[in-house]
Amino acid sequence: MHPIILFDGDCLFCHASVHWIAARDRKAVFRFAAQQSAVGQALLANGEASAKDSVALIENGCCYVKSAAVLRIGRRLSWPWNWLAAVGFLVPRLLRDHMYDTIVNRRHRLAAKRDRCQLPPPELRSRFLYKLPR
């Protein structure tokens, strides 16, 4: 099963991040779902972690959030992001999560230059989940 990235569907920064990830996911490994969608809610209900104010990665039956999710996503991207993610795991989780929280708390200001979400191109739309994977 493909790893699934759950993102805040109401956040312009998060939408831009999905496009950024998809452009660097050359093998089209990831699938995407908004946390507010029926799929997102069902997947989060099955996870052990809370993803409020966080990206979540569902991979091999585990739910990763915050910096752990970001770095696990990064490991599957193209060079140099996979290498940077590997180095990122050397940073203690407490510090990584603090840096993650700092960005999350500023994400709406970071995306302030955009007033609406960019629609995904057709080749990316097929990677968004509208029903639960089997």
TrEMBL record:
Membrane spanning stretches: none
Coiled-coil annotated spans: none
GO molecular function: protein-disulfide reductase activity
A Pfam family matched in the record: DCC1-like
InterPro entries with a match to the protein in the record: DCC1-like, DCC_oxidoreductase
PANTHER family xrefs: DUF393 DOMAIN-CONTAINING PROTEIN, THIOL-DISULFIDE OXIDOREDUCTASE DCC
Protein name from the UniProt record: Thiol-disulfide oxidoreductase DCC
Native organism: Geobacillus kaustophilus
